[in-house]
Amino acid sequence: MSSIAQSVEGNDDQPEDEDVDGVAIGKKHKLGHLRIDTQGNVTFKRLPTTQLVEALQLGIQYTVGGLQAKAAHDVLYQDFLTVEIIHFPKEGTKTTPAHRFNDFTIRSYAPVAFRHFRELFNIRPDEFLYSICKPLRELKNPGASGSLFYLTSDDEFILKTVQKKEADFLKCLLPGYYMNVTQNPRTLLPKFFGLYCYQGDNKNIRITVMNNLIPSYLHMHEKYDLKGSTYKRRANSEERRKESPTWKDLDFMERHPDGLLLDTETFNALAKTVQRDCRVR
Q: Is there a contact between 34 and 42 (Cβ–Cβ < 8 Å)?
């Protein structure tokens, strides 16, 4: 299995100012690796996000499209360990197109396994590529991670940057995840459809593709970010002032002291699914 090179990071400058949402033209904002300058230009690890997105779309189009020419087979353990490495020189090659950025590389982790996941959830390769390769909409991240979130224009998929340790954890989880989603189609775990790494300009940026659980048109009366912990798990005053705040664990306990009431059949089915999902490791 090919190893991932360590990220090369420079010293980070402190932000000059922040506002409630962290996005205000005329102010400089920093959250994790995410930065927004005074002109509203967004970078991640000092790489323009427009460049990251276009490079990623090009890489996904190449690796997913290339899989269609390969005969499908039952998923083997080695498929979880495979890393496909595609180099994209600026001037192009016989198999890759020329582009306007510096040379970069896309690593596609366990491509055959993820193809199986997409097939399992009835996602055709052409539909997947059609969604991913159209213009993406950047979502505001209410958390403190500084991750980038993108939503496809058809509301089907979310692309999210993840840390190296998160990507490594997902790779280790894949065999157990495969067994669970195969035997438990009612799983409540996120549906992962791809894991990639952009390498270029001395940067390593890892991105996962997953299902979008809640369509944009659906109006949410309340929304919560629940982690099963009460330590510092309360929405701050800035979040509470928002029109549609994201509440946390302590807020849920205060606003719903009796919890959520479900009928017996629904409760039993939910409890069984959660128990099976918790065994994935």
A: yes
> May I ask the CATH architecture of the domain 29-211?
2-Layer Sandwich (3.30)
Tell me what percent of the chain is helix, strand and coil, each rounded to the nearest 5: 30, 20, 50
Whole-structure pTM value: 0.80
CA 105 to chain centroid, in Å, comes to 19
**DSSP one-letter string for 250-267:** HHHHHH-TT-----HHHH
Q: What angle do CA 274, 276, 277 make, to 5 degrees?
A: 60
Domain ranges of the chain: 29-211, 223-277
CATH architecture group of domain 223-277: 2-Layer Sandwich (3.30)
Three-state SS at 139: strand
- DSSP conformational letter for 220: P
User: Using one digit for the tens of pLDDT, what is the confidence trace for 232-272?
Assistant: 999 999 999 988 899 999 999 999 999 989 999 999 999 99
80's tokens: 């979880």
